[in-house]
Queue: 2 jobs
Job 1
Amino acid sequence: MDKAIGIIGGVGPYAGLDLVRKVFDHTNAKTDQEHIDLYLVSCPSLIPDRTEYLLHDGANPAGGLSICFGKLAKCGATAIAVACNTAHAPKILDQMLGSVGREYPQVRFVNMIDETCKVLQRLFPDGGKVGLLATMGTHQTGVYRRYMERYEQLELVEPDAAGQGRVHAAIYDRAFGIKAKSPVSSEAKTILRNEAMHLVERGAGAIVLGCTELPLALSEDMVPCNLIDPTDCVARALVLDVAPEKFKE
């Protein structure tokens, strides 16, 4: 069976599209036919909000993620990623992997947070401070802290509680948040740039955009440090997994 990439989107929908685009960007192809086979499942109706589940006892998204994983596996995907940082919280991810691992042992799950930490390790081989902007669910459940504990040279710097609330609003607010407005509103961009600058002032040499909506709003010309895009990190890993000979920096 030929190898193919699978992407669980819909979490949010534009984040799935962004991951698809970045897979294409990292593929060395001169014709349509030279691109890697790729399947995107975007079924937001199946996947409840991850932060609502983690912090407020909302509906569990693991079941919907598992269904989407199965759809992709049945299409022929051999390496699958989820276009959502918060979905990698152990309370969600462990349930999903426990379910799909038994049914689809031949399919590899490519972990966005793990791939991001590998990039940070290469960026700071002698140690450094790494800032994080993310949803409240990602911050409060320590998703990145858990992974970065394996890398002693890395120190995680997070916004204070008020800052985390402002970032969360820039993502979720129904009047100006990234999930509600396309293109991204100037208010959301201003909030995120200000919070990023606070992390730089605290010594962050790089900032992880730890929600898949954030790369839609922040770019490196807005902040004087490296911005690490987990979507790009996992896109690179997907291409290298499925067709390493086609990988393009």
Note: The longest strand covers residues 128-134.
Job 2
Amino acid sequence: MNEKQRKRRPRERPAEQITAQSVRELFNRCVLRGDLRMPGDAELEQLAGVLEYWRQIFINEQILLHRRQLQDGGLAALRTLTNAISAIAKLDESNFSAAARESAPTGILRYLSERLAESHGARALAESVGGHPGLAYSPASYGANGWQWLADVLPEDFITAMKPTNPTFAPGLGHTGPIASFIAAVAPLVTGEHPTPASIATQLKARRKAQARSSREARRS
């Protein structure tokens, strides 16, 4: 499978728990190059805990994303229904007013009055459903909806894990560097996606530029 085909593989919900052993195997296979040494057992255990935490957050985010999609669809359908009921109520109001002006028989006025009350009640019911917490409330989100978010949350933990056995560790952000390789390797375990190290490196550089720009603006203000 070439790199382009791998990048286009569909996202799957990651199902396996991330352990220190799986992280160790990942380091051996994808991360350690040159004179880089394997992190210690405690660091691998801690890093595995971080990755497993974010895996669970991602899974929960996907559930919430699906919920919000259903919620948005329900609200859109409810708006269509409310608009239709409002149009019906307006028509009923017009018919009742016309009948009253023309001194229609009492039975007709009573019937039109009852129909108008029903349309107003239906509109009030639709509006109350639209304001119900089950539709109006959106649960909080971490924004953990794709591998790009891993570029924000993982570099610091990765460097912390590497430092004890690699005291002079100063990773760059290139596509052949250990950070890009690490995030590209763990993304399938955390989000089910398969980004390339080059994509990760581009994201990391963009984040660093944004942070530098934000710092300059803060100093000017």
Note: The chain has one domain: 3-220.
